[in-house]
Amino acid sequence: MSDSPWKQLCAAIMKEQDPQRLLALVDQLNRELEQQTYLLREERNIPSQHSEIEV
User: Fold this and answer.
1) How much is the pLDDT for 1?
2) Which three-class secondary structure state does DSSP give residue 15?
3) Has residue 40 got a pLDDT over 60?
4) CB-count exposure of residue 9 (10 Å: 0-12, 13-18, 19+)
5) Residue 16 and residue 21: Cα distance in Å, rounded?
6) Cα separations (Å) of 21 from 13, 25, 35?
7) pTM, full prediction
8) Radius of gyration, alpha carbons of the chain
């Protein structure tokens, strides 16, 4: 059984010593979590907090 991608990224972040590589891993983790959030909202039909504002 493999860990989910975000868990693997968290493990890599905890071990990373290079600041530039750390930043890249955190950016990748943010994208992964945003994608997971989007998929969960779509699955449950929950509106995004970033809905367009009508003017």
Assistant:
1) 41
2) helix
3) yes
4) buried
5) 7
6) 9, 6, 21
7) 0.70
8) 15
